[in-house]
Records
---
Amino acid sequence: MLLEQLINGLTLGSIYAIVALGFTLVFGVLGIINMAHGEIFMVGAFVGVMTTGVLGWPLWLAFIASIVVTGILGYLLERMTLRPLRGKKGVSHLAPLISTIGVSILLENLSHHIFGAGNKPFRTEFAEISIEIGSVSIYIVQIVIFVISIVLMIGLSVWLSKTKAGKALRATAENLETASILGVNTKKIITLTVIIASAMGGIAGILVGMAFNSVSPQMGLAIGLKGLAIIILGGMGNVKGAMVGGLILGLSETFLVAYGDSGYRDAIAFIMIIFILLLRPQGIFGSKIAEGR
Amino acid sequence: MKVLRKASLFFSVLMLLLLTACSGESTGNEGSTTEQTDEKISAKFGVISYLTGAGAAYGEAITQGLKLAQSEINENGEVNIELVIEDSAGEAEQALSASQKLMSDDSTLAIIGPTLSTEFFAVAPEADLNGITIMGTSTTAEGIPEIGDYVFRNAIPEALAIPTAMEKAIERTGAKKVAMIYGNDDVLTQSGFDTMKKTAEEMGLEILTIETFQKGQSDYNAQLTKIKNTNPDLILASALYNEGAVIMDQARKMGIEVPFVGGNGFNSPQVIEIAGDAANGLIVATPWFGESDEQKVVEFNEKYEAAYGKRPDQFAAQAYDALYIYADALKRAGEADRELFHEALAETKDFEGLLGNFSFDEIGDVVMDVKVVEIKDGKFIEFE
């Protein structure tokens, strides 16, 4: 039972972590919370359902389709709703937050109209493969989810600290104007960030579809709130924080159900936020510099 | 900048389109108000339904069932019915304000809905106070018709459906130990759970564990692992089908092979759509058996599928019947008067609807036969 629940917790935690990575990346660079991230995640899941279920594409192609579609959505998000508000006089710093909420409502209702209400099944043979260890069955999907989340975290960390683009991104995050003066194409960097974050949302979406076999237009909201809780927990704008925060939340939710009362499952994220805000407001991995942006 | 302006223009237009798309649904039949023309009785019924949000699938089925019935009734020509459909979004507050809007219109003869029992408990006392007849088509929680004189329902109560299903299931499987799982944030699933628990205790079953979940959750592995380890003979699941189907899918994947007994909200062909083979072994009691070869059921299935491209579920069937019951009462009332209509409706007896022989008891609750069905080989069949 312990092992099974541990696997459940790690699977859930890894998914939370991937969602939170997308949140944290956008926050790190732009200093805004992208409320549409949950809905982009949902679109990614639907692209997976449509390409594998209706069109009969193989899974790897579905992944690519999902990344491409959510990447394009990320581009449109930046181009149409974030850039027009950036650096303009008289625009409140809350404006981009509100406009991403608008996008999230648009996407949710759009997919409601296109796909209809209710859960859609996600059928792939890949999701059926499992290994039996004693009475415990581990699905390959669960391992894949865990591995992908680790790879994404490491990849992102390396990319941010070692590559030129990553350095430019960090410079942009540090100070947009200075980076721009020093020859960094900040427009391009910001666009790239939003695209990468959205594509990661798309990957998370398709993974959730495979692991839990439930995709609905409303799935973005719940996971979006969890993602938000995680980046507060792990530290806003921090890659490691998102990963660790995601795993902590996934594991604690699972173990609360296993050894406690399942009725309090959703409460745990918010209880954690209360404590972290009281004890360490910058989050587990956060530094105080990140504040005041 | 030019591109940008174009883009934002495009975006605004898109938003506007979406807005109109939202409001486009809210009126059924334009025109005629409550007046008699050429001896034909016209009436306006208000409908409150769960059309946006996590449970929009239920509201969709209900309004589709209503609209199908409406077009048939109006075509038939004896009475002319207009539906004014309001969205409740699954929220009691919004359902209440929608009902106030409908009730403040003097030409509203009676109300159908809202969808969830939670919402119904907020709306029905208000309607009763105003002397407006209200009928729930999907509200199966306990205590609904007891709210007042003007409150009716044609959905069979959980207190009738669940014990019947449980008795039959236990008769065949000989189960002694059961595990329970239910949604604890909804009056319907909560009330279904109470009934299940009471029945289980009366039958002397051992309850191994009780697990809960919330609306819109997608990962049930933690609860199911716990259930699996207690090794039950039977699982009692008080869930709406949307969540229930996913629960079954994840349970089967985990290696839980025992049958599930569900409440009324679990009964839908969508369970098979969503869960596939994993849906086998679901046992529910229902007034609506979609696979029946009765003439009227087959015809309804065909008409519904032709109109909406999918098979009807019990929510659609019950809504369809509800409008026919209203139309029947309207005919007997002779005119669109709230008092006369209420009296006529209360007298409904042996009404031959899609769901079978239907009557109201003294308090406005359902009197009808319940069938127990199970899913086997990807199909609903009668439980033996």
---
Amino acid sequence: MAEKKSVIVRVRRQAGPNERPHWEEFELASRPHMNVIICLRDIAERPITRDGKATSPITYDSNCLEEVCGSCAMVINGKARMACSALVDSLTQPIRIEPMTKFPVVRDLSVDRGVMFENLKRMRAWVPIDGTHNLGEGPRMSPDTQAKAYPLSRCITCGMCLEVCPQVNDNNQFIGAAIISQVRLFNLHPTGAMHARERLEAVMGPGGVADCANAQNCVQICPKQIPLTESIAEVNRQSIKQALLGWLFG
Amino acid sequence: MSAAGVRADHSFFWRKLHSFSGIFPVGAFLAEHFWSNSYALVSVAKYNEASRELQTIPWRIFVEAGAIWLPILYHGGYGVYVWWKGKSNVSQYPWVGNWMYLLQRWSGLIAFVFIGWHVYTERFLTQGKSTFADVDKALANPWYFGFYLLGIVAASFHLGSGLWNFLCKWGLAATSRSQRAAGYLGAVVAVVFSVVGVAIALSIRYHWRPFEFYVQ
């Protein structure tokens, strides 16, 4: 029989939003194709630290386990990653697991990404179709526009683009690449375009597109390969046009 | 970074103006400045002639203040504020763009300090009548010469990288292909400005005049 290998995991824990964080280390039995979520599940099955102390299961968010829900983003070995696709075999041990730093911690690895939803609302990142009567069919979308819009629609609001952005911090209200890319997506939509100016005026406001400083980390980290720097430049182009010509021609 | 309590401001205008002012007039002036100083590579007489020409333009003080000093003060001052609003994380995420982000801030600061000292010594201490002899004397000091080289390379890098930033931030390069092209353009600008600027400093310090045969 082959020798049993083990996996060493260090988790940064925090009992509540205002509690002091501390580290706990665990030793788990290695299994083939293990990922970080499996590690956290194994800890929940037997919540005992490496030095034999009983502890509580670790709180974390996860759902789909295939990189499409966006909930399990965390900082693994110092880098923002989706825990479901972070394979243990590809990580140096001990594996350090921390919550994302740009969002308030709820407990352990679970963070509150509500700020992204609030900013999506502030940017009017939807297509308004509700009314008192049937508005009929909207305009058709050309295949060309569909091809541009589809990659943008894959955003899972995981928050990793905010996590790696040097412009997202306590000194800055920057909304981040994901939100700006959604402004582009809904301005691209033939029905959404009817409200393009409202979105541009919102995105030209505080923490808007002008706070991007072009470090381009967002496009490197995005787990959905969304062309975020193209989106930011396109929203820049639209808002510059609105700023230069809007006050002249309305 | 909270969505609540967001107050309207004019940061969009100031931020875009900051980006633009780095190209025009500040970058344009750097091009003019390197052009005029390149007369050092021809002869001392041509250099002094070009200097005298610029020193006797009409409305001089207004042109200097409006087209050079105020834009540089604004660009540098607002640049420090922009720096404060960001927190570099290049040790965690050492990607090229992230390095450029950090270098853009440091090169800007070095250039800003250098320009302040350079304007004070060569514009104000000489009462606006600087000649080849004045610059020659300053560059004879090895520390001053070193600071000149550092300032020239920092300003040139900052302009090249800033040109790339400007093209992205004004949405003029909005595809990844055009952004890559803008990056190459910025690199060419940074290298050309560095080479020309360093050649001027070398020319003045070592009295090296590769174009002297024009006037012989």
